[in-house]
Amino acid sequence: MSSRFFHGGDSDSESSSSEEEELYGVEGKAEDSEEEESSEEESDSEEESSSDDEGGPIGASRFMKDVASSDESDDEDKHTIVKSAKDKRLEELEGTVRLIENKEKINDWAVISTEFDKMNRQVIKIVQSGTIPKLYVKTISDLEDTINETIAKQKTTALKMNASNTKGFNAMKQKIKKNNKDYATEVDKYRADKEAYMESDEEEEAVPVEKVRRNRVQRIDELDAQIDEEGFATVGRGGRTLQYTPESILKHLRTIIESRGKKNTDRGEQIRIMEKLLEVATTPYQKIRVLLTLISTRFDLTSTSTQTYMSQEQWRSAEREFSTLLQILEASSTYVVTENADEWDDDEKAPQPAPNEVFKIPGSIVSSIERLDDELTRSLQQTDPHTAEYIDRLGDEQLLYNDIVRSLIYIENLKKMENVETPPESANRIVMRRLEHIYFKPTQVVTTLEENTWKALPERLQSEITPRGAVKDAAPLVQTLCNFLFQHSEGILRARAMLCQIYFLALQDDYWRARDLALMSHLTENISTFDISTQILFNRTLVQIGLCAFRAGLCYEAQGVLQEICGSGRQKELLAQGVVMQRYSQVTPEQERLERQRQLPFHMHINLELLECVYLTCSMLLEIPLLAQTGSSPDIRKRIISKTFRRMLEYTERQVFQGPPENTRDHVMQASKALANGEWRKCSELISKIAIWDLLGKDKENVKTMLAAQIQEEGLRTYLFTYAPYYDTLSLTTLSGMFDLSVKKIAAIISKMISHEELGAALDQVNDAIVFRKGVELSRLQSQIVTLSEKAMGILESNEKVLETRTSGMANAFVRNEQRGDRAGRGGRGGGRGGMRGGIGGQAGAARRPGGQQFGGGALGGAIKA
């Protein structure tokens, strides 16, 4: 027994070792990677055999025979079968194929997709040491046929799958199409004669690659030839230098596109590779594909790095490449870039379209130009506006505007092609971008911008929307672009076009047309439903209308419009000209980042100091006479036009010592006190000394003259309100000498005050005097009625505020401006344009409101309220 044990043990070990030597002796000439894998298989087989020994009897009983073992004596003489690594891999492949075939029967495409990836990994290891397994060729060929049959069933019988199977089936459609291209020859052989192909067991031996040994000098010479001018050579895996040829361009692009979005991807290296590919590209198709990928990769630099905006160098490179792309597309009418095109999957060869055929390349010209615009805006936001770098960066706007016009011409030409479908909003988006670059600029700047653009474009390019030479002025250009958007767009684009046109009209001092467009557009009613950038544009337009009204001498209208923005104390935030962090506000970093992204570049800002000066000056001209009127007549309900102005005035009056004015606010407050005291000359002098009026340019002197005339009139009104209780009669000649106004002008002002029941007096035209009527002391009942009316008006105002909060807050500036009444002769105070003087809303016999507030808006105001 013992001798048999030792003999059997020796024979087993010797036989197994000899078999292993024979097996691995043959395989020993393979590559190093296969040797490592075979060693791993050996260790696995040894572990399995050891585990089998451990699972049996132990001790002497292990070698003793019983009755059952006597019947199986032949099994003891069997030797352990050792399989090569190649055979084991083939068995694993067969198991995977069986699983795929079983899942095909029940249409379980989710599992098929997973096992297909596993099968490809297994085949890679087998192919390294031999040829392609015919079982694999059969499987991928049958799998493609099954996929085609399933697609046909879906079209005819409406075959339905669950979500996971649908996802796996769609993935398999893409995988099998791309995978079978690499084995097209073998698949064709199999499909030609399936039985003969599978019956032939002859395996094609791998053709050994003859390695040519080169000496060191030859290797150095070869490396020097591959080094570029800068002294660097692009090295791939294994230390081999990469070769860039026209035939390999599409393969390199495929590799770059597949790595997009992955971590640890060197975008800079990819850009350098594509720049070399662009140099070796020969056909228009190759250049277009490289440029599209190169431009998008440059944009990825910003999103994948910590940098918040593109550097000027990268931006100019992207702009230059985009301009080159447009030039190639304009020169070659065979290739077009559209968003709804199918991708060309064959990386081995480029497409060969017929002479009159148009080949579509997937891409978006509109998205590229929008991204260029956004990156330039982002860089201007982050650059200090008081440096030369900002001016240099702002000079790139001419290049961008050239590309915008050129892109618009290209989109127009695409629409003329029969077989090319372009999204209808493509032209609208480009026209909107073009409009946003010119609506806020002076006419001279817009004219120069247009002239330089058409000089830079080739003579053959022509636009149907804005033909070359047809639009020479800024006003017709803005009108043409806005009309195009009104006709072909809707929603936000149309609203933004309307706001841009209103802004431009207000900038050109066309107040009445700008106001009418703003009222007819009804944007004040639903502006809260638009996005934040459109709301910011609405606020800017509102402010520009107010400034336009002020330049036109309509201080009452200007104050009513600017009240919404300046009365809130959040001018910077509402106009997107700065981030104001509240003391107790809880703002997340993400919200703060979004808020900073919405900020406008410095060259688009509206001067906030000028805005405050205009608002305070208009408030002064309205509030000081009102304060004098309510102070002399206690029975009149105390109204407040501007709470902000009242608060500033109260703060100034509480100061014990007041020095000379230092800033704009000090000038206006001291001028207000002088006007309240009847010193209109001092008030006019203080207002004219404000340095911010110099920003008005050529309108500066006209504005100062207008303000001096307004101060004279308001000074007269304030004087009459203040000292009326102390006079029985007052000579018009005396008033003319005090306020440097003609007797006729003074008579007109007083007549208006009397007709509006602001002043209890009568004109004695024979003696050129005013006869004042003394007020009658109110009874207790009358006083209670006055108190009741005041409370009712307070409730009415609170209801109006609730309505404003629900309907957009600042949306009813124009409506309330019309409701507050126009006083004729001073920008619309009194009976008003289009209104009746018989009371509120033109109803005769109704109780009149004090202070000339009987105007109800006329026909336009009634239409708005309805």
UniProtKB/TrEMBL annotation:
<dbReference type="GO" id="GO:0071540">
    <property type="term" value="C:eukaryotic translation initiation factor 3 complex, eIF3e"/>
</dbReference>
<keyword id="KW-0396">Initiation factor</keyword>
<dbReference type="GO" id="GO:0010494">
    <property type="term" value="C:cytoplasmic stress granule"/>
</dbReference>
<dbReference type="InterPro" id="IPR036390">
    <property type="entry name" value="WH_DNA-bd_sf"/>
</dbReference>
<feature type="compositionally biased region" description="Acidic residues">
    <location>
        <begin position="11"/>
        <end position="24"/>
    </location>
</feature>
<dbReference type="GO" id="GO:0033290">
    <property type="term" value="C:eukaryotic 48S preinitiation complex"/>
</dbReference>
<dbReference type="GO" id="GO:0031369">
    <property type="term" value="F:translation initiation factor binding"/>
</dbReference>
<protein>
    <recommendedName>
        <fullName>Eukaryotic translation initiation factor 3 subunit C</fullName>
    </recommendedName>
</protein>
<dbReference type="GO" id="GO:0003723">
    <property type="term" value="F:RNA binding"/>
</dbReference>
<dbReference type="InterPro" id="IPR027516">
    <property type="entry name" value="EIF3C"/>
</dbReference>
<dbReference type="GO" id="GO:0003743">
    <property type="term" value="F:translation initiation factor activity"/>
</dbReference>
<dbReference type="Pfam" id="PF05470">
    <property type="entry name" value="eIF-3c_N"/>
</dbReference>
<dbReference type="Pfam" id="PF01399">
    <property type="entry name" value="PCI"/>
</dbReference>
<dbReference type="InterPro" id="IPR036388">
    <property type="entry name" value="WH-like_DNA-bd_sf"/>
</dbReference>
<feature type="region of interest" description="Disordered">
    <location>
        <begin position="816"/>
        <end position="866"/>
    </location>
</feature>
<feature type="compositionally biased region" description="Acidic residues">
    <location>
        <begin position="32"/>
        <end position="55"/>
    </location>
</feature>
<feature type="compositionally biased region" description="Gly residues">
    <location>
        <begin position="827"/>
        <end position="844"/>
    </location>
</feature>
<dbReference type="GO" id="GO:0043614">
    <property type="term" value="C:multi-eIF complex"/>
</dbReference>
<feature type="compositionally biased region" description="Gly residues">
    <location>
        <begin position="853"/>
        <end position="866"/>
    </location>
</feature>
<comment type="similarity">
    <text>Belongs to the eIF-3 subunit C family.</text>
</comment>
<keyword id="KW-0963">Cytoplasm</keyword>
<comment type="subunit">
    <text>Component of the eukaryotic translation initiation factor 3 (eIF-3) complex.</text>
</comment>
<comment type="function">
    <text>Component of the eukaryotic translation initiation factor 3 (eIF-3) complex, which is involved in protein synthesis of a specialized repertoire of mRNAs and, together with other initiation factors, stimulates binding of mRNA and methionyl-tRNAi to the 40S ribosome. The eIF-3 complex specifically targets and initiates translation of a subset of mRNAs involved in cell proliferation.</text>
</comment>
<dbReference type="InterPro" id="IPR000717">
    <property type="entry name" value="PCI_dom"/>
</dbReference>
<feature type="region of interest" description="Disordered">
    <location>
        <begin position="1"/>
        <end position="83"/>
    </location>
</feature>
<dbReference type="GO" id="GO:0071541">
    <property type="term" value="C:eukaryotic translation initiation factor 3 complex, eIF3m"/>
</dbReference>
<keyword id="KW-0648">Protein biosynthesis</keyword>
<dbReference type="GO" id="GO:0016282">
    <property type="term" value="C:eukaryotic 43S preinitiation complex"/>
</dbReference>
<dbReference type="GO" id="GO:0001732">
    <property type="term" value="P:formation of cytoplasmic translation initiation complex"/>
</dbReference>
<dbReference type="InterPro" id="IPR008905">
    <property type="entry name" value="EIF3C_N_dom"/>
</dbReference>
<feature type="domain" description="PCI">
    <location>
        <begin position="602"/>
        <end position="777"/>
    </location>
</feature>
